[in-house]
Amino acid sequence: MSPEDALNSILELENYYTGLKNNINGSPSEMVDKAWHAHILNTKMYFRFSEAAFGRYFHHVPFWSGNMEMEAQFDNSMSMFERLNALGVENMNETVWMYQSKKMTNDCSLH
Fold first, then answer.
1. Domain count along the chain
2. Which residues span the domain enclosing 101?
3. Helical H runs in the chain?
């Protein structure tokens, strides 16, 4: 990921968190998910952030974990990009939301 793509992914992660804070459930894009993983790796900072933003530790449950309860919460008939747009989030980077690597596309086709 280029430095520009990384920065754009972090900005869109902020938009994703905005949606979550507004009770909009949906899957992050591949690039947003990578930014979220990087954020989580700084555990102390992520814990403090979660407490301040959500009032609790906000867990990340990977789609491949088999957590059916979590998957049932997501109505993926509308993308998170569309949901955030409907919420009124402006100036989103559509490329960050729509990009799918070949690896991810192949992995998803197995499910």
1. 1
2. 3-109
3. 3-21, 30-41, 43-54, 68-73, 80-87, 94-98, 102-109
